Amino acid sequence: MSSIMSNWIPHHVNPYPSDFIEQISCVAVLLTVAHRISECNRIRSVEAEYDNDTAVANCVASNNTHFRVMLYQGETQGTIIVDMRRMSGSSVIFQEEYHAIMCAAKFGEIWPRENLEDLKTSPSDKE
What is the enclosing helix (H) or strand (E) of 101? Predict the structure, then answer.
């Protein structure tokens, strides 16, 4: 595997290995999608090891939630498929990271992680 890097700079992507594509397709340059994802991980404090040779990122989010992000070539030139798989850990945390990364990859919008103190306080406690 390539050395650990803070920015993802994949050299190429392979075609998606299945005809069934339920993952998000992004119409953007490969490096743009990869940069958006690595920035999202940085801002959300997700540890990630990026492999530029295979366009794979192995990530660890809060509560020791492990997941993998893989980039593939879409059917048309300039289309990148983003595939995310939870490897272990919290499915709730994975869903949060999934939505954040997909939004970053597709639209370039990065959502910071919610403050844990805000999550512990119910809306009625704030009044």
Answer: helix 91-107
